[in-house]
Amino acid sequence: MAQTVERETGQEQRESRVELDQTLEWQMQNQRGDSYRILVSKPEGDLPYTGGYPVIYVLDANAYFASLHEAKRAQKQFRQAIIVGIAYPGEDPHNFMRRAYDFSPPAPEGKNDPPQGGQDELLDFLSAKVMPAVAERFPVNASQQSLYGHSFGGMFALYALFTRPAMFNHYVAASPSLWWSDRYLLQHERRFRQQVEAQQVDVIHRSLSLIVGGEESLQTQQDAEQLYQRVTGLSAYGLRSSFYVADDEDHMSVPFSIGARVLRQVLQSRSE
Description:
Layout: E1 3-6, E2 12-15, E3 23-29, E4 35-41, E5 53-58, H1 61-74, E6 82-87, H2 96-102, H3 119-137, E7 140-150, H4 152-163, E8 170-174, H5 180-183, H6 185-197, E9 207-213, H7 218-231, E10 240-246, H8 254-257, H9 259-267
Parallel strand pairs: 5-6, 5-7, 7-8, 8-9, 9-10
Antiparallel strand pairs: 1-2, 3-4, 4-6
């Protein structure tokens, strides 16, 4: 809402909220009735030869959508992409209660504060509601869809890869919380690797990008690097993986320094 402010010069100036060009927003509810803000960075330019636009789904979008949107628009080669932010009502950059539930595995009784266990519900919401809603509004390249998350969101992105590898083509996990819940992701990682090696899961057109800050805890850096070393063997089956350390960045600054790298990782990869 605009308001009028009188400055010392005596002149009246109208003030209003800053809006991001080439964006739109709508509200959606999951099966539980929880509300989400869906933030969209619209594609610009001609439709790609594939007949559809690449899509990047960004978690914790209250915090990270705007910077990634502007990084995309400032670089002409990326403007055809659609960025879809999964955000929460309100203006807080990080909604602790909501993300603690959405990105986590079920917790045992007595350790479920804050409430946890919504990771499969969020994946169902994305696959059954959000992704079809995006495809209704824009031509989408179903072979060029990516998921990007940071911290808890990075942990969630890895869970998605390990349990629903066909859902996205590219998975970006920045500073993933691999320590969470007694390293619960290890069991899913082992099963995923076994399925790939048994050729029960096709990863030929899949990639994983692991990113950490050089000023993060040694544990965070080592955990991510060791995960990278374990999954590199799956390159024989087609999975591409990378590991990058953003020098001089800590846990909270990493997402704001890697926007261009994330765009390159997921948009300059061949999908066919």
